[in-house]
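Hi L., both proteins are below.
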Amino acid sequence: MQRRKLRNPLALAVLATLWQKPMHPYEIAQTLRRQGKDSSTKINYGSLYTVVQSLQKHGFVEVTDVERQGNRPERTVYGITAAGRQEATEWMSDLVAYPAKEYPIFETALSLLGVLHPDDVVTLLEERLESLVVQAAGGRAALEKLSETLPRLFLVENEYQLHMVEAEAEWVRGFLDEIRAGTLPGIEEWKALHAS
């Protein structure tokens, strides 16, 4: 995997959006929002202009036009360059091919679970499970609605997110069952840790 000049996922989202056609930054933001990319990429719309300038500095995008409509301020339209297409292709290839170690905060919490009493963990995981079930239902409904107007290719990240939420809910459900039944190896020691 290659070390990138830019590592902000928003830069990749901008390159992918400009691949569709040249746009000004406000239109890029609208397109990302309309295509639901704000649910899969952390998009700080305030830093979008900075990201576009950085992409331009590295030669990945270039000014293709300056629009002016009536009394409105000028809008600079950017297009992706050949170097930008190559960067986006290589970056995407790396992301799709090589699993990266990510550090979700829930994993951190699980690694330190012994701090909490098992009874408290049951209560908290029941709350989490409830939230996950609601999130999965919302994700399923959103996916159905979006699939009415968008091809599946543009919804695979939504499918993936839904699958991950459902998988987490299934795991939490099973782990809860083990704690409740007292079959989790080491549960007696865990309870003893909190007995004093």
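That was the first. Here is the second:
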Amino acid sequence: MWDWFVLFLEIMLINVVLSGDNAVVIALASKNLPAEQRKQAVWWGAFGAIGPRVVLTIIAVYVLRIPFIQALGSLLLLWIAIKLLIDDEDHTGVKEATTLGKAIWTIIVADFVMSLDNVLAIAAKAQGDIAVIILGIGLSVPIIIWGSTLVMKLLKKFPIFVYLGAGILGYTAGEMFISDTRLYEQLLGDTPHGIIPVITTVVVIAAGLLKKFVFRPKHT
């Protein structure tokens, strides 16, 4: 029971940290609507986004069981973790909707398009537990959308949560890679399994720290 609860918390944290971009899109898509319609757009968009995300994640759980696909997924997840800490892109090009229906549709489509990282991360971490996938996504999406601006402020104010989420993703990427036993044995032979997740975690955190302290942009 305790292991399940820890897994659930990890999935919630991953989903919240990786959904910062989605929160920005939600805020931008609905900002031109009247206050009451804005709330409706956000909530209907949230619930409309949950279904496709759950379905995609469950599909990913089974796809990731295919040999070599799992190893490829681990490399993609490692890149997602690094990108989370080094990415500076903005969303000024997001289209702002002028009607309730268009806002809801914009939120659902944007969430669907931007959720590959969430889907892959949760599918990898959940270890086939469909119940924890549904519960983790079902609870975290409304939290993210209800507090879209609050989530962004918290992540900016307490970057330790972003690093923690990225570290979990890095560790999960390492676990995914060693689970692809056939490829692992071909490439790494008798290398102890426990070393790989630690290495991938260190790589992710190191990339974030290098970007922050060594390659940070100079302000003029």
